Amino acid sequence: MDKSLTTVLVTSSTTVREVLDSFKATTDDLLLLDQNSVIAKPHLELLTDYPRSASVALVATEKNGDTLVRQNRIASASSQSHKVTVGNRNFAGALRISQNQREEVIKALEEAIDSRLPGNAIDLSLVALTRARVQVDAADLWAAPYARSADNLVRESVASELENLNLGQLRLKMANRANDGFYSVFFLRKFSKLLTWLAVRVKATPNQVTLISFAIGLYSAFCFMQGSFSQTLLGAVLLQISIIVDCVDGELARYTRKFSKLGAWLDAVTDRVKEYMVFLGLAIGAEKSGEDLWIPALVMMLIQTFRHLSDYNFARSVKLRAESQFLAPIDYTADFDGIVPTEREPKGRLRYWLGKIIQFPIGERWLVISASAVIGGASFTFTVMPILAAISALVVYRGRIMRTLKMERVPSRGILISAQQDSLILKLNFIKRFDWLAPSLLRAIETLLLLWIFIINEEINAVTFMIIFTIVFHHYDNLYRSLQNEKKPVWLSRLGLFIEGRLLLLGIAAFGEWNLSYIAWYFALLFLLTSSLQWVLSHRANKVR
């Protein structure tokens, strides 16, 4: 358990005043536990051992429950004196109140005290925080029973079940993501669980596992470079092993509760490097047998880049817009919260998994790469992949455009989009609510112009692939920084010349028949090495736990 926690057991006689006094008397976060709650230790660890910057409540999925969760945040809660209009969770009776929100919390609890409404202190505290719009995150309890009941027999029954539970297996199950892609959930993570258990036993760290997966992925790309069937088969198998191991790092982080910004960045960028190096390997392997597949390889990389950036930016943009719903406080003394239900009916199981597959996530993509390369070689891979990517994009973007049209006609809040511009002139500010597409469109403009320059100068080869790859990596770097509310240092952006400078330099170099290898090395040293080192060194001391 986090040592910076003060725990209070809430009984029927506990008052909100006592909760407030306990909170004000310490500089530690305050953990409230209902005496009528029986909760498995791994579930309680979601509150005590995970890195938290805001308050958090433990909840369990329940249709028409007593709590409403939106965007992984408590939107409304219940008590003896308060009701939710519509609920999708039940409050499990465990609440961590963060000192990072000290002033907001004190103000909200004081208002609750002044109102003198009856009810359990932990429920009243949660209602007070949510109605005052203090951020309270939701930690979902699943994979094991719990109880919150005044009936002693119910509590004893659940406690007995938990005593016979294998806590290690429960932690492993909780660490194994159940909302991943179809292929990942039903195949990859069946194997990754075994490796995660082994990694726990040998005390490996998540970052070590990430680097192992990275090494396997790079060797897979090397095998594809050889061009022979046996090496292609080996490369395909290694690519699948790489993604299985890649599942382990996140599972291990969740199991051991060892998280860091560095780890999240490392996991994300290595996935992109592995995938694009496989494209490079397939193109080189095909070249050895007389096939020129550089343009298809580059096009596939550009398609994936456009899609990846828009995926991340759309998801974060939706989250930022949803958070604006939490700005207006709700009257604490009102019986009902007045929230208009907007929740969609859950999809059927078949429709849900078909939707997951059509999104063409990394598991499915890498399966197609492996299978198509073995079946028909690189040319077949670069034929099948764009077709499947186009079908996926057609379905996904149709839904996103329809959803965006229902949004307010204003840009996203914060630096999410601006941190990814990387342009002195092009801003695309006019697209307003569609600004989640701006980074992808800017990348498309730059890379298509570069592709045109290289094609008309007959400079499509491994060198030009690496030039565009390093630029793409630079944009991914900007994306991952912006997702953590950070910007790349100005000096790094200036050395990268921005979009306009890179186009000018590479245009002059190509038309002037310069040796492009020097530019490739410059961008590699700047974007792959220097920028990565800057990120690593700046976050090395920021590891959480």
UniProtKB/TrEMBL annotation:
InterPro entries linked to this entry: CDP-OH_P_trans, CDP-OH_PTrfase_TM_dom, CDP_ALCOHOL_P_TRANSF_CS, DUF5941
Residues that span the membrane, as ranges: 366-397, 491-512, 518-537
Gene Ontology MF terms: phosphotransferase activity, for other substituted phosphate groups
The entry's keywords: Membrane, Transferase, Transmembrane, Transmembrane helix
Residue ranges of every copy of the DUF5941 domain listed in the record: 384-540
Cellular-component GO terms for this entry: membrane
GO BP terms: phospholipid biosynthetic process
Top-level division of the source organism's lineage: Bacteria
Family: Belongs to the CDP-alcohol phosphatidyltransferase class-I family.
Name recorded for this polypeptide: DUF5941 domain-containing protein
Provenance organism: Actinobacteria bacterium BACL2 MAG-120802-bin41
